[in-house]
């Protein structure tokens, strides 16, 4: 367990986390934690798909559950740029851990950005401390990228809403206790998005957790189905207090979510580069390290370039977000490129390892299994390219 006096992350207000020295201190703390606490156990927990309860406790002590939450609510108030660098560091060793906090922070963002003052005061301090942990419940069995196709309904009943339906692929679904959940309060509305609302949904009667979904990678973190049968929530749980705003509220956090996924991609790309570089300098064939063979040098050169470009694109998108600029194109570019870089570097890293890369005794195989998720999560890369193109054309009108 990290020493709270020495290892607790600095809050943005004393002084601001954007200050270079404060950011350096924060990232150094994260790096020490990753090396001391995560690296020694990641292979064991990943292979057993075991939830890291003690790591979650450490994350609470470090303040990570309030990383981007405002300091007035007990959070660290980190900028998107600093948060992205933190995610990169963690993901270079154990990408799954970042999912525990990212989905949770999407819940916090929805409340902090769109909630009423009463909702912010009631929920955000407990979310920032990790007393309440949760995520974002959007996806359904027949609705993923097409969020307007969700079927879950919320029917008004006096001063409550009665909710019925199913959510799936929900990160923190089993271990979390509260979710920002997208439903239809008017299933007949046209256009469809005008009938959608976002609710704060704690686990109470009528809310049950289904099976934990088995995955190729992204192990040691729960991804689950959620079932709702006559689940009642008070009207005070409607985020913002007005029906019909849910679609915009849910998608309003996707820019930060895509920056996070891009940062995970950077971490995997850099992690694969590190492992391949180390191995290539130790493994010898034909009397010399394989790093001296041109074929390996070509691979490492491409891997280093991809990782660097992915990092710069991600920090560029984070910078635009922090400046309050519209950045759906920049976030889409970062997410698309960084996730593809993660996948390519993981594959090339495995090839550099040769037969050992196919062994579960070497960490490169975990990166190989984790990387594909970044190409899917927070909007597929096919969708990202469409978003990028539409925004590019809008910003580049014919003279």
The helix-and-strand class reads alpha+beta
Number of helices: 13
What name goes with the CATH superfamily of the largest domain? Butyryl-CoA Dehydrogenase, subunit A, domain 3
CATH topology category name of the largest domain: Butyryl-CoA Dehydrogenase, subunit A, domain 3
Give me the strand/helix succession.
HHHHHHHEEEEEEEHHEEHHHH
Query: What is the CATH C level class of the largest domain, in words?
Result: Mainly Alpha
Strand order of the largest sheet: 2-3-7-6
Poorly predicted parts: 1-17
Report the end-to-end length measured between terminal Cα atoms: 60 Å
- The level of helicity is 40-55%
Mean pLDDT: 93
CATH architecture annotation name of the largest domain: Up-down Bundle
Count of the domains: 3
Task: Specify the overall morphology.
Answer: globular
Beta-strand portion reads: 5-15%
Give an account of the 3D structure.
There is one protein chain. This protein folds into 3 domains: 4-129, Acyl-CoA dehydrogenase/oxidase, N-terminal domain (Butyryl-Coa Dehydrogenase, subunit A, domain 1, Orthogonal Bundle); 135-250, Beta Barrel (Butyryl-CoA Dehydrogenase, subunit A, domain 2); 253-395, Butyryl-CoA Dehydrogenase, subunit A, domain 3. Helices cover 50% and strands 14% of the residues. The chain is built from 13 helices and 9 strands. The strands form 3 sheets. A 4-stranded antiparallel beta sheet has the order 2-3-7-6, covered by helices on one side. It has a 3-stranded mixed beta sheet with strand order 1-4-5. Helix 5 (80-91) runs parallel beside helix 9 (254-282) and helix 9 runs antiparallel to helix 12 (364-374). 49% of the residues are buried.
């Amino acid at each position: 367990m990290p020493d709270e006096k020495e290892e607790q992350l600095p809050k943005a207000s004393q002084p601001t986390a954007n200050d270079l020295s404060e950011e350096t201190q924060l990232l150094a703390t994260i790096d020490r934690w990753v090396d001391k606490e995560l690296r020694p156990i990641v292979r064991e927990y990943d292979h057993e798909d075991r939830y890291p309860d003690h790591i979650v406790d450490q994350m609470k002590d470090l303040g990570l559950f309030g990383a981007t939450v405002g300091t007035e609510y007990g959070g660290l108030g980190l900028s998107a740029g600093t948060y992205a660098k933190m995610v990169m560091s963690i993901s270079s060793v154990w990408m799954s851990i970042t999912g525990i906090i990212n989905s949770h922070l999407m819940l916090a963002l929805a409340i902090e950005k769109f909630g009423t003052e009463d909702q912010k005061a009631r929920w955000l301090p407990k979310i920032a401390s990790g007393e309440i942990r949760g995520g974002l419940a959007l996806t359904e069995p027949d609705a993923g990228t097409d969020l307007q196709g969700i079927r879950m309904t919320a029917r008004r009943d006096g001063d409550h809403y009665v909710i019925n339906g199913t959510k799936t692929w929900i990160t923190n679904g089993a271990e979390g206790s509260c979710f920002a959940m997208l439903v239809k309060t008017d299933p007949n509305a046209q256009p469809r998005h005008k009938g959608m609302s976002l609710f704060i949904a704690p686990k109470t009667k009528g809310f049950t957790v289904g099976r934990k979904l088995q995955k190729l990678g992204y192990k040691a973190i729960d991804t689950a189905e959620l079932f709702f049968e006559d689940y009642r929530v008070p009207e005070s749980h409607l985020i913002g207090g007005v029906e019909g705003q849910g679609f915009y509220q849910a998608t309003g956090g996707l820019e930060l979510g895509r920056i996070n996924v891009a940062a995970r991609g950077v971490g995997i790309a850099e992690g694969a580069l590190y492992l391949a570089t180390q191995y290539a300098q130790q493994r010898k064939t034909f009397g010399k390290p394989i790093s001296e063979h041109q074929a390996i040098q070509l691979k490492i050169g491409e891997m280093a370039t991809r990782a660097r470009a992915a990092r710069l694109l991600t920090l560029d998108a984070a910078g635009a977000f922090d400046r309050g600029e519209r950045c759906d194109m920049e976030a889409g570019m970062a997410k698309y490129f960084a996730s593809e870089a993660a996948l390519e570097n993981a594959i090339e890293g495995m090839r550099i390892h040769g037969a050992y890369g196919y062994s579960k005794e070497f960490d490169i195989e975990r990166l190989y299994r984790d990387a594909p998720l970044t190409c899917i999560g927070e909007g597929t890369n096919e969708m990202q390219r469409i978003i990028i193109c539409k925004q590019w054309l809008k910003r580049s009108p014919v003279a």
